[in-house]
Amino acid sequence: MKVLIIGGSGFLGTELVRQATSAGWETAATYCSRPSNVSGASWYQLDVRAAGDVDELLAEVAPSAVIDSTSGASDWAVTADGSIHVAMAARKSGCRLVHVSSDAVFSGARIHYDETCLPDPVTPYGAAKAAAETAVRHLMPAAAVVRTSLLIGHGRSVHERMVHDLATGAGDGVLFTDDFRCPVACGRPRLRSAGNRDVRLDSTATQGTVRTRLRGGREFLGVP
Fold first, then answer.
1. How many CA atoms lie within 13 A of 178 on its CB side?
2. Of 140, 144, 30, 134, whose CA–CA distance to 90 is shortest?
3. What percent of the chain has pLDDT over 90?
4. How far apart are CA 130 and CA 212, in angstroms?
5. pTM confidence score
């Protein structure tokens, strides 16, 4: 099994690289500015905004599967167009694709969202992610689109560091009381933006199809 992890140097990508190498998979990963310090993977510099470069990399690596975990926040050229370039290259190479999306594709008006809910974004980041989802589903109907929520892990996420800094007085800022999310362990963090304040993912259908048990924030943090 050979896997290519796009965005392997990010918070989520680093953990994916670690898990893939631990599973004994031949692992390649990309970075934008600098590679992660996780060993056992082959690292490639890549700008997903350059469609030709994405095509060349997939042709060179020839992976069995591609996991696109990159994100440029509200930068449309990275978050939307970049994901489209990855999907087009994956289709050309004939490999499987796992596209990592976000609960930011939802407005929060419904509150509870399962896998069948259609995107209704209200933020630029959510709109870019929703556009990427639409393109991926059109280009590769068999691709797995994985919508994550607020993701934390071992004190390394942006959100965890912010809270720790506020608690110790090392940072300035305030916390909020009107934003409801369903955090899960380890992944790409996202800073809060105005708009989608109450988004709670129901992953029951997904849990029924994957072997890995999905842990929620309470279990991960060890609180009742």
1. 5
2. 140
3. 57
4. 26
5. 0.80
